[in-house]
UniProtKB/TrEMBL annotation:
It comes from the Bacteria. InterPro entries: Peptidase_S1_PA, Peptidoglycan-bd-like, PGBD-like_sf, PGBDSf. The keyword Signal applies. Residues 167-213 form the Peptidoglycan binding-like domain. This is Peptidoglycan binding-like domain-containing protein. It comes from Falsihalocynthiibacter arcticus. Pfam families: PG_binding_1, Trypsin_2. Residues 1-31 form the signal peptide. Gene3D superfamilies: 2.40.10.120, PGBD-like superfamily/PGBD (1.10.101.10).
Amino acid sequence: MTHARPLVTAISIFLISTLLVFLAVPNQAQAQENTWIQIEAHPTLNEAQTRVRAFSGAFPNVGGFRVSSGWYVISIGPFSAAAAAQELERLQQENLIPRDSYLADSRSYQQQFWPLGGTTLTQPTTTVEPTTSTELTPTEPVGQIITLPDETPGQARANENALSREEKMELQEAMQWEGFYTSAIDGSFGAGTRRAMAEYQAAMGYDTTGILTTYQRGELRAKFNEVFTNAGMENYSDPKAGISIDLPMGLVEFDGYTAPFVHFVPKGDSGVSVSLISQKGDQATLFGLYEIMQTLEIVPLTGERERKDASFILRGNNAKINSYTYAALENGTIKGFTLVWPAGDKANMNRIIGVMMTSLLSLGDTALDDFAGTDQNEQKIDLLSGLQIRQPILSRSGFYLDATGTVLTTSEFAGTCAKLTLDDLTLADVILTDPALGISILKPEKKLAPLGFATFANASPRLKSEVAVSGYSYEGALGAPTMTFGALADVRGLDGEVNTQRLDLVSLLGDAGGPVVNAGGTVIGMLRSTEVKDGRALPENVSFSTSANAILKVLADNGIASTTSSEGGALHPVDLTARASDMTVLVRCWN
């Protein structure tokens, strides 16, 4: 029995030693696999969670961690140091991760936020000292996480030299975006770039070396690309429309098809919308689309217009919205898009436009069917393929004064319009207004050749004689002027105004500004807008016109030529209508 104790002791020591070795092996294995490939860094948890979900769809071993600076990083791993280096090289060569991705030790990571409930972080191992005791002493909990230092200037410069010219240009653009860089975006890191880098480092509380470390470049890049993260830029591929494009899916959502458009409406209160363009056609179709798009509310009147042989660009802006439209003809199909956003934030949206432009891809000769999404029971005159047609704020009549297209119309147009159009085709400007007479004179931006122009009566009209008004009674809805017949009730106004004529004639709002003609087709006045006298509405058959004599005096005083004639014989109603219609023009005000 006395010889058994040494044997028992030896066996105990052997078992304890074996147990210690067994317990140490997993920790050593874990310690060897604590290297990560860090691919992105974001200032907020929300941004990081959005991006890490996207990466998780491509890589099975993605982790998200908070670091000591307060930023949130996305990494792939963990690996052994050797395996991580090989994987980093492979992923970069295959363009699967950003070029500025780098290796990081897990000891620089603090709290894990992805995967949810994940525990892939390992703490630094504690060395187990050999002991002869039969009791195992538990190790003390680790109280402080060790953070690895950032790169030295030499290491930072070496990593910087590995960047491509495009990546260097992106850094310059990012520093310009942050307000630190004002020189050319050329990918050349001269004194101006170094100064900007140092200023950025100082602003962020880093050592001002003038050489951004890999981490600092990643941080700057993350800020620069924050607009894309917030917009939720994702690739959208539509086999039906034959289009692939990156869209701000965080701001818009799919709404349906109405040829030639694929509609995306605002998500929440973003105010952003997208319409993809897809149709078969040729150059004539493209040019027609160029004109049609400018009639839509989503393309405001003010803005750049550029049309080439096989593409066009439309920019529009007003007090409420901005928009950008691009369309191109290729292989018998027209593909493009319109992006609309609330007024303001032009810089950020221009960057989104840049991504949409570079990512736009036509998937062969496939295009939307001409009747895709159309509902014959839901047709509306103010809609075109599901988009609102721009409506004028004022539509009235006018008539030509000469063979070059000078127009006389109502003074309602004075000072209220961003743009004036004649027959929806020609822009015009107000060159003269007489509020007392209720008249304005318009000059077209280019010379016109109207079918007819006014010949004024050089004698006062006879009381009770037949008269007619040519005008766009329904404010352009019918596409042509209508004739309204009546009689001259008085050569003065109700209060004895000598420049006003009272008519026994039922007129509508759209008729205002139109020519009042006698039976021979000569002009005796211009119909004035409907008046309310002292708060009293007049009978519907009471209308007023500014007399020809008053109009002729204004024209003469301002050096504007006119044509006059003595009253001739009465014309056949058909001929009278033709003569009056030829001189009448639809005048519209747009804002």
